[in-house]
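Ex. 9. Protein: Chorismate lyase.
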Amino acid sequence: MALGQWCAARNIAQPPTIRAVADRSERIPAPAHVRMALGVGPEEPIVYRHVRLTCGDTVLSVAHNWYVPARLSQAMNQTLESTDIPFGKVVAPLGFHRERLSQMRGRMEECPTGTILSHRAVLRPADERAISLVIECYTRENINPARG
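Predicted structure tokens for Chorismate lyase:
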């Protein structure tokens, strides 16, 4: 939601619609620290979703997201597997809040070169059981979007 507002305020694209362009071929098993942050054991299924969040043709963010499919509805899981709708928008009915674990200027290890700001956060609905750990890598295009 915030990225869409940013896109609109900066007039990056019309309409200012955010899409999560997924790399569905990439599969990264959840490392132990991700499982710990999500509060799941080694046998619990975790899904990895790697996306480029775009506004028009401008990539504003690259996101690495590990989530617990058992904590989402079947419809939410299907939407995440088959569409370019951002994770936060899909799971919004759960009324989640973000618990920021870290933030830094520049790039975290998981982020691509050229990242200007990185966030690591856990998303938790009202029952406080984590549904997702996300690493967001914001691009230089947020400050100086390419105009075509």
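Check your answer against this statement. Residues 45 and 142 are 34 Å apart (CA to CA).
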